[in-house]
Amino acid sequence: MKKIIYLIIVLFSFILNAQKLPKKFVYLEDIAPSIRIELRYFSNNNFIGKPIDGYNSNSLIITRETAKSLKKIQQELLQKELSLKIFDGYRPQQAVDHFVRWAKVLKDTLMKAQYYPKVKKNSLFEYGYIAAKSGHSRGSTIDLTIINIKTDQALDMGSAYDFFGIQSHPLYQNISKKQKQNRMLLREIMLNNGFKPYENEWWHFTLKKEPFPNTYFKFPISKN
Length: 224
Fold this sequence. Notes:
The protein is α+β, with helices and mostly antiparallel strands. Helix content is about 30%, strand content about 15%.
C-alpha cells in the first residue's frame, strides 16, 4: 500500500511540474512526430559552442498554426522520401539575451572558424547577426532544412546552418546547380504553405499569418 501511495504522489508531482504551454502553443512532436528535431541551441554545436539559456530539452515548441503547416509540408516531402529537419523554433527571450551577452565578450571566439570566419565579432550587431529581439520569440519562426530519409543526410544547401556570411543568403549565386536546386526546393515548399522567407538565411522562415506578431515570449523550452 505504501508503495502505491508513493507512486501516486510521484505521478501527481510530475503532472503539477509538467510545463503548461501558453495558449496556441504546442510541442511539434504531438502534431507531426515524423519531423526530425535537432535543437542546436540545446547542444554545443552552435556558434557560441555551448548550450544556450532557456533550452532545457530537445523539444520543439511552436504555435499550433505553424505546426499544422509544417505537418502539411512533411506529408508532401515524405512522398519523395524526404523529411524536414528543424534546428530551432520558438526561442525564449533569455536565449536571445544570452546571444547579446556573448556578442559583447569579444575574446570569446571559440566557434569563429566554423560559423563566422570572415566576420569580426565586433561587427555582429552592425550586420544584424545578433539583435536584442528575435522573431523566433514570437513562436512562429523556424530554422530548418530537408534530409534524405534513406541516408539520414541533409541535402547540400551550399552553406552550413547558422553560418554568418553572404554564402547563407538564399539567392547566393556562387554555389553549385544542385545546391541552388536544394535551396529552391525548401524555399518553394515553404512559400506554398504560408511561410515567408528571410533574405539573409536560406533556413529561416516565418508563418505569414503568425498569431503573435507583436508578442515576445520568455517561457523556457522544457519537455512536457
